[in-house]
Specification:
Two copies of one chain form a homodimer. The first copy, chain A, is an alpha/beta fold. Chain A has two domains: about 170 residues, NAD(P)-binding Rossmann-like Domain (Rossmann fold, 3-Layer(aba) Sandwich), CATH 3.40.50; about 110 residues, 6-phosphogluconate dehydrogenase C-terminal like domain (6-phosphogluconate dehydrogenase C-terminal fold, Orthogonal Bundle). Chain A contains twelve helices and nine strands. The longest helix of chain A has 27 residues. The two termini of chain A are about 25 Å apart. The relative contact order of chain A is 0.11. The model of chain A has no long low-confidence stretch (mean pLDDT about 95). Chains A, B: Belongs to the prephenate/arogenate dehydrogenase family. Chains A, B: One of its GO terms (biological process) is tyrosine biosynthetic process. Chains A, B: It is an enzyme of class 1 (oxidoreductase).
C-alpha cells in the first residue's frame, strides 16, 4: 500500500485526529501537520501525539503534502479550498470528512477546478457528540463504514488510494453517487439530529422543564444523545443537505400528523399496528447492525 | 421494615419479575405467586426463580396476599381489578407499575371502590425495550426513581409500606399528584417513544429503506432504541395519557414547523441558535443525570 509522506489534517477534531492516529498506528505516514483556528486545540493535539506539527495557515501547511484531509465543518471548506488551491502540490490528494457530499463536490468544482483529478470526497461514518483534538482516539473507525463519492473527474488511482488508507484504519469502504449518499444520510442521520434538537428544545421551553429533566431517564438519555452534537456542524449540514432534509421533514410531519389524529381519536388499533410495524423494522435492523452486516 | 408474607405479581415481565427478585434478595418476602396469560412465560419465571408458584387466575391467586402488584399493561388493569375485587383480603395492599397514573387512579376508583385505602398507584422508572419474565433481573431498580401517586383515600401507612419496599429494591422514592406525574412523563417518556416509532416507520416506508438501514449507525441506534418497545404497552399509554400527550405533540409539531421553515429559508443563524440552546440543556441534563442528582 502507498504510504503518505506528509499528511495535512485541516480541522483536528474527532474525525481528523482519529484518522491521523490510525495512519500512525498503521505505519503509513511520515509526518502529520495539523491546521486549525484554535492554538489551544493544536497544542493539545501535539501533546497527545495526534499531530507532529501545527499551523494556523492552511496554505503554508500543504507545501509538500501527499494527502490533505479537510475535516472542518462543511461551511468552512470553500475558504479552505481557496486558501490551498494556489499552493497545492500537483499530485496531492485532497479528501474530506464531511457528512454531506453533493455540496462538497460542488465546492471542490468551484474552488479547486484545476485539481479535481485528485479530489476524493469521503464520509467516514463515525459520529459522536464529542469534538476537538482531545476526542481523537485509536480504533474509532474499526468496523465503521466510509462512503467515497468520487467526482467524474477523479482519477481512479486517487480514489483507490483514499479507499486503501481508510481500510487500513479498520473501516469498510463503499462508493456511491453524491446524491444517493445525501438522500440516505438525510434519512438516517440528519433528520434524527434535527428531531432530537427540536425535542430537547421543546422540553427546555416548558414551564415545568426543571421537573421534567429531573425525571428524565435512560429512554430520554439515548433518544437525545445526538442533541449534544456540535451546533455549528449541524447548522452547516442542515443547509448543505437542505433538499433531501426538507423532503424527509415533510414526510415525518405527515406521519406525525397522522399519529396525532390517532391519539386524538383514541384509535388504539391503528396506533398498535404502526408501533408493531416500526418495532419489527427496528428489531430487524438492530440484529443486522449487531452482526455488522 | 414490614415484610410481605405472600406477594402476588400479576403480569410477570421485566418490572414485576424484577420487583419479585428484589424482594427475594432483600429477604422481605415469603412466597411469590405469579399470574399471567401465557403459561410459557409463567413456567419460565418459575425456572428462573422469579416466582415460586404460578396461576392463570388472578382471583384464585390473591387469596391470602399481603401485596398485589398489578404489572400488566394499563389496558388490562380494569379487568384484573374486577377479577380480584370480590376476593381481596381486607388489608392487602394493591399497587401497580403503570407508566400513567391518572388513569390507574380512575380504574382503582371504578373497580376497587371498597379497597381504596389500600391502593397505592406507583410508577417505577426503569424502562427497557425487553419484556417477559426472562427480562427480569436483579438490581434493575438500583438508583432508579419510583413515583408514588397515592389517592386521597390511601392510608398513609399503605403508601409508606410500598415506598419502603421500593427503597429496599434500591430505588429512590418520590410522591406527587397523578396529573403532575402524567404531564412530566408525557414530555420525557411518552412523547419521545411516539416520535421514535414515527421516525422508524417513516424510514421503513421509504423506497430506499434497505439502503437507508444499511448505512444507519450509532446515532440512529440510540435515537431509535425506544422504538423497539412493546407495541401494546405503548398503545395503552398513548390512550391513557392522551391529553398531556396531545398538548406535547402539538408543541413539538409547532417547533418542527418552525425548524422546517428555517431550513427552507436557509436561516443558518436561527438553526445554530436553537441547536446551541438545545445542546446546552442536554449537556447540563446529562451531567446531572450522570451524578444521579
Amino acid at each position: 500500500m502507498r504510504s503518505i509522506g506528509k499528511l495535512v489534517i485541516i480541522g483536528v477534531g474527532l474525525i481528523g485526529g482519529s484518522f491521523a492516529l490510525a495512519m500512525k498506528r498503521a505505519g503509513l505516514v511520515g509526518q502529520v501537520v495539523g491546521v486549525g483556528r484554535s492554538l489551544d486545540n493544536l497544542n493539545r493535539a501535539i501533546e497527545l501525539g495526534v499531530i507532529d506539527a501545527a499551523s494556523q495557515d492552511p496554505a503554508q501547511a500543504v507545501a509538500g503534502a501527499d494527502l490533505v484531509m479537510v475535516a472542518t465543518p462543511v461551511g468552512q471548506m470553500g475558504r479552505v479550498f481557496d486558501a490551498i488551491a494556489p499552493v497545492l502540490p500537483a499530485a496531492a490528494i485532497v479528501t474530506d470528512a464531511g457528512s454531506t457530499k453533493g455540496d462538497v463536490a460542488q465546492l471542490m468544482r468551484a474552488h479547486l477546478p484545476e485539481h479535481l483529478a485528485y479530489c476524493v470526497p469521503a464520509h467516514p461514518i463515525a459520529g459522536s457528540d464529542r469534538s476537538g483534538a482531545a476526542a481523537a482516539q485509536y480504533g474509532l473507525f474499526e468496523q465503521r463504514r466510509v462512503v467515497l463519492t468520487p467526482l467524474e473527474a477523479t482519477l481512479p488511482e486517487a480514489a483507490e488510494a483514499v479507499g486503501q488508507w481508510w481500510q487500513a484504519s479498520g473501516a469498510r469502504v463503499f462508493s456511491m453517487r453524491a446524491d444517493e449518499h445525501d438522500a440516505v444520510f438525510a434519512s438516517v442521520s440528519h433528520l434524527p439530529h434535527l428531531l432530537a434538537f427540536a425535542y430537547v428544545e421543546m422540553v427546555a421551553n416548558k414551564t415545568d422543564a426543571a421537573r421534567c429533566f429531573d425525571f428524565a431517564a435512560t429512554g430520554f438519555k439515548d433518544f437525545t444523545r445526538i442533541a449534544g452534537s456540535h451546533p455549528e456542524m449541524w447548522r452547516d449540514i442542515s443547509l448543505a443537505n437542505r433538499d433531501a432534509l426538507l423532503a424527509d421533514l415533510r414526510a415525518y410531519q405527515a406521519g406525525l400528523a397522522q399519529l396525532t389524529q390517532w391519539v386524538e381519536a383514541g384509535d388504539g388499533a391503528a396506533l398498535e399496528q404502526m408501533f408493531q410495524h416500526a418495532r419489527e423494522a427496528r428489531v430487524q435492523w438492530a440484529q443486522r447492525f449487531a452482526q455488522g452486516v
